[in-house]
Design brief:
With about 90 residues, the protein is mainly α. About 60% of the residues lie in helices and about 0% in strands. This is Guanylate cyclase domain-containing protein. Keywords: Lyase.
């Protein structure tokens, strides 16, 4: 039962990251058509990030250091998005 609860929590966290908490909550609670969970935005901004010198960094440090670096970078982006009430989708 503990594994099931942990798995459900991980799935819910993934849904929140991919769709945003409001939409994930609407889908989880049900009671409406899936298409009704869609949102419309008058304007959007798409940000593509590029780390200058990333290939060079990768050739000089270990894999876990790269994973840590990228995780930290996206954690900072996530905190900034939350602070400024920005809907964030990470692909």
């Amino acid at each position: 039962m503990e594994n099931l609860a942990l798995t459900r929590k991980k799935i819910e966290e993934l849904h929140c990251r991919k769709m945003g908490k409001a939409i994930a909550d609407r889908l989880r609670l049900g009671g409406g058509k899936v298409v009704e969970t869609c949102e419309n935005f008058e304007s959007v901004t798409v940000m593509f990030s590029y780390m200058d010198g990333f290939e060079s960094i990768c050739s000089q440090v270990g894999a876990m250091e790269i994973v840590s670096l990228v995780n930290n970078m996206f954690a900072i982006f996530g905190k900034l998005a939350e602070k400024h009430d920005v809907y964030e989708v990470v692909e």
